[in-house]
Amino acid sequence: MVKAKTTTEDTSHGKKARSSGVTLRDVARFAGVSSATVSRMMNTPEIVSDELRARITAAINHLGWVPHAAARALATQRTGTIGAVFPTVSNEHFATAIQELQDALEAAGYTLLLGCSQYDIHREYNQVRNMLERGIDAIVLVGESHHPDLYPLLSQRQVPFVNSFTFRSDSENPCVGIDNHKAFFNFTTYLLGLGHRRFAMLSQTADSNDRALARREGVRDALAEHGLGIIAAHMVEGFWGVRVGRDLFSKVMSTPQPPSVIICGNGSFAIGAMLEAMQHGYEIPKNLSIVSFDDFEIMSELPIPITTVGVPSAEIGRTAAKMILTELSGNEHATSIECEAQIIIRASSGPPPRTRNTR
Question: What is the set of domains in the chain, with CATH numbers?
Fold first, then answer.
């Protein structure tokens, strides 16, 4: 009996089947080089001549060879995969940073594996564990506050990491981002300079968000330096979302002595606050100033553009990638890098309303 010969053609559908039987040796034979040369080209292409790279690449493309990740990992002790866990991808700045991070890592030959924690440190920890089981070479995190077992786990596995969207000069861990405390201290100082004395803050819940806590403390410290503070009814918090921003705005504006300026801890709160203010007929900034963190694109397109602290998210993503690649090079350790926050002045902020003189 003659055995049927397996081909790469699916004659019933006119499509090629997967050429799963192609090996590194087949590529080497087709290119007329040794298997060791093909391996060198895949692992360290910079040491192989342009002519050889072209021949081997042509052979790979012709044969449809895909290197086996597990076998490559055994040979190099690397999987070529970098993990990243972000709180959410619905935040415009996180999405921008992820795109830049992926582009930079891809250019260096790495694949990005992404997880979203929804600001849940337990979920973040489990996602990191799952990524470690899949052999990631390094990981990018957001913020400094994580599950208490996370740092020991990464240390035990000797997996490099970078904390992004945060910076402290005395941090024990490599980080890249803005100094959230300093950014809001300076922002509040600017508003004090306009004459504001009655402040409210719509703060994101800080239980698992060290950046939100740092912004809140930046506001408080700047006010304390001028002998001022925020009354309890004017310091309110919520998780996330435009609807939450609207509700928090209504809450602080219903107090006996409403504020002259509202500082929003994130962009969605600011958008919600502005929509609620416009619906109820507040003249912004004549009656009330509304300012924010984040610089979402829509903020400059609203009928009353919002004054905000801008975050260089693209720079943070690119820099995080560079720091991870530095760590993986084995030649040196990455040093923390501070990115500068920028106060962007728009129509939503101005001096406080003048009080009428009584006689």
Answer: 21-63 (1.10.260.40), 81-178+313-340 (3.40.50.2300), 180-311 (3.40.50.2300)
